[in-house]
Amino acid sequence: MIDIGPSLHVWRSGGRGAFAPAHRRGAQWIIDVPGIAAFSFGLRGAVVAHPHRGAGARQVRETFGRGIRALALQARGTEVLHASAVVVGDGVVGFCGRSGVGKSTLAYALALRGHPVWADDSLPFRSGAGRIRAVGADAPIRLTKTSAFYFARSCSGKQRVVLAAAGPGVRRRASAASRPLHALCVIGRRPANGGRVEVRRLAPAHALLAVLPHALCLEMEERARKARMIQAYLDLSREVPVFAVRFGGGLEHLNSLLDVVERLTSPARQTVRP
Amino acid sequence: MSPQDRLAMRHHPDVIGQQLGDVLVLIHLSTDRIYELNATAARIWELLRENGGTGDLSAVLEREFAVDRGHLRADLEGFTARLSAERLLTIR
Fold first, then answer.
1. Cβ–Cβ of A8/B20 closer than 8 Å?
2. CA angle A30-A34-A35, nearest 5°?
3. Helices A204-211 and A223-239 sit at what angle, rounded to 10 degrees?
4. Residue A214 phi/psi, 5° resolution?
5. What is the C-alpha separation between B25 and B16, in angstroms, rounded?
6. pLDDT at residue A139, rounded to an integer
7. What is the pLDDT of residue B18?
């Protein structure tokens, strides 16, 4: 049978990255974040912030670190996933998922188990010669109030000092310009699941469909740039193991999830094929 | 030779294709649509690239796959019409 019918999907390339109005004038981007600043950048050089009245320098820096930097990277040719990530072995394991699913919480909890945080919210990567490498992303972890309260209550005394020193977040401890991207987990919630964790390794085509919605897409007007981006995600889907991870319940089941993720992403598992 | 075979059919320049596991994935850069082609469809896609659709695709496929010629022609016409409707092919 000749078949294309049942497997058609529509990917909305404008779906990510537009957390604030973005305008392009020639090779210059302007992103206006209400109440904070208008950020402008080109294909090279510094990102310039024009703070709005009443915005503090700290707010401007945080907004840059948490979103603008990633968008500038994407506009300049580095692909960026909306994901958090930790270091496992000599590589990086990323966690995609919609906002609020628990990516930062998962990364933070894994950091407390000895896997340094590599990225929070934005995971830049580069593709080349059949290799996918995560690029360093210097950003502090930002936890929800619920997660911060959970860790403050459940951590040992030493770990509480780390939380206290860094307020709601903790800076990443990993240091390297880039590392191999060992695996990606696409995290989803399934409330009716209780504490059970469901894991499924995705075939490469399904991995593409699962990962692409989490791609930052600022520069999509230029055809050649878009083609390079698509090719990078095709390469990623072919080269990097991608797992769909579904879990139910709240933070009381976090340890089950962490156990599963650690087993799944241990260096010894990286050669396993579906 | 079917009417489709006599037309020059080419991959649309905005389509990127790559084999991912068992399927050929096509992504149309203008429509953001993603397609998965099974092995037979992928072979036709490849033949279209090789000869621009000007050759007798059904004869090649008949040799490669154990299929009835009548059914094959109907399937092929339907498939290429679908590819054209999705703007994955340009026809001249």
1. no
2. 125
3. 130
4. -100, 10
5. 8
6. 56
7. 94
Q: Judge contact between A198 and A190, C-beta under 8 A.
A: yes
- Report pLDDT for A120: 85
Residues of A in contact with B82 (CB under 8 A): 4-5
- Residue A267: pLDDT band with limits 50, 70, 90: low
Pick B29's closest partner by Cβ from A4, A203, A227: A227
Nearest CA in chain B to A202: B21
d(CA B17, CA B13): 11
Which are the contacts of A155, defined by CB distance < 8 A and separation ≥ 6?
A: A112, A163
Asked if B29's CB is within 8 angstroms of A238's CB, the reply is no
A105 Ramachandran zone, left/alpha/beta (phi>0; psi -120 to 50): alpha
Q: Is the pLDDT of residue B8 over 70?
A: yes
Q: What is the reported pLDDT for B88? A: 92
Tell me the two tokens of residue A229. 């981006």
Sequence letter at residue A13 = S
**CB neighbour list of residue B29: distance below 8 Å, 6 or more residues apart:** A223, A226, A227, A230, B14, B15, B16
- Pick from A96-100, A102-106, A117-121, A252-256: least confident: A252-256
What distance in Å separates residue A234's CA from the closest CA in chain B? 7
Torsion from C-alpha of B36, B42, B46, B47, nearest 10 degrees: -130
Cβ atoms of A256 and A247 closer than 8 Å: yes
Strands A131-135 and A48-51: unpaired
